[in-house]
Design brief:
Layout (H helix, E strand, L loop, with lengths): L5 E2 L4 H12 L6 E6 L5 E11 L4 E9 L7 H15 L5 E7 L4 H8 L1 E14 L2 E6 L9 E7 L2
Parallel strand pairs: 4-5
Antiparallel strand pairs: 1-7, 2-3, 3-4, 5-8, 6-7, 6-8
Helix pairs in contact: 2-3
The structure holds coenzyme A.
């Protein structure tokens, strides 16, 4: 739950709504299920915030959901990024991750390089917990790390 900027309890209904109303309707989002060679789903990963004019996009929703060989997610992410460059023509690819998430090391190992860190502040309301970027926040606390794909 603490891997993302909005912390929530995932239910089937909520996930279905997200897929149908957000992912399915948006031409700025692409989401793949990621199966192993036996077609057993092991994760999912995609792109978001695609700007077709400027050639920008972000890796998004990168989650391992099951077993699969070590390095499976790294190779999948690299393949996705190469397809985004060579298949979709996106030239400026990045990802954002919380500084307290081990996925930061995962992205660096996969071929992303840090270029910005923005402090985050925690915000609670009826919808749950959200982390919001605050330029004047404490840089020693949790930050949002921006990384660029360098292949
Ligand atoms: C982020 C996440 C997808 C990474 O998954 P993962 O299983 O660690 O990734 P991989 O399958 O690439 O495995 C990584 C391991 O394989 C190793 N590896 C990478 N490429 C390899 C290869 N070609 N051959 C063998 N090993 C390899 C890595 O060194 C790493 O080893 P370590 O864990 O001992 O350091 C997973 O931790 C996750 O789902 N996290 C929760 C969701 C999340 O936070 N997503 C990101 C939000 S921004």
């Amino acid at each position: 739950m603490s891997s993302f900027l909005t912390e929530f309890v995932a239910t089937e209904e909520r996930t279905t709504r997200w897929l149908v109303e957000h992912v399915g309707l948006s031409d700025a989002k692409i989401l793949f299920m990621y199966d192993d060679v036996n077609r057993i789903p092991c994760g999912y990963m995609g792109l978001d915030f695609i700007d077709w004019e400027s050639g920008r996009g972000e890796a998004d929703a990168i989650v391992r959901t099951g077993d699969g060989p070590k390095g499976f997610m790294t190779e999948g992410l690299r393949t996705l990024m190469r397809w985004a460059e060579n298949g979709l023509g996106l030239r400026d690819l990045s990802v954002r991750v919380r500084s307290d998430n081990d996925a930061l090391r995962f992205y660096e190992r996969a071929g992303f390089r840090q270029f910005r860190a923005m402090p985050l502040v925690r915000h609670e309301d009826a919808q749950g917990t959200r982390w919001i970027e605050e330029p004047n926040g404490d840089p020693r606390g949790i930050s949002l790390i921006y990384l660029r794909w360098e292949g």
